[in-house]
Amino acid sequence: MVSDISLGSGGIDDIQVAIRAIERGVNYFDTAPDYSRHGSELLLGKAIRDFGRRGEIFLASKFCTGDGHLPPDAPVPEIVAAVEGSLQRLQTDYLDLVHIHSCDRLERLLAPTFHEAFDRLKEQGKVRFLGVSTHTPNLETVARAAIDSGLDTVH
What we know:
five-stranded parallel beta sheet, two-stranded antiparallel sheet, 41% helix, 17% strand, 6 helices, alpha/beta
């Protein structure tokens, strides 16, 4: 179960925001390596560690780096390394959710390397679920394709 309110951390720069959110029962935190060039993940990692409630937190990040989104043809080792970097910055062993971020085209949604990397990371216990995030005019097309894809890794 996740809280009705979540904390998106794109512009977060004060650890007290995250700590107060945890104190008030927020348990869904969304971050990404390119939010403040790793700053968001570093801040959330410290807040969650200091508060000592990782098991109660649903933590989501993205397939990207501090420089931006990974392209659909990114090699699997590069994708895995990006997620492992997030795990280090977040001071955790696993992500509850990793998004194919900025998914504005079907090519990105269905990129075999993202799905292979997810499968490897899931087998290793480093990620639990795969998601899609998008802010595109093609939202309906992308969402329908994700649902209709038949891929059991698209949630």
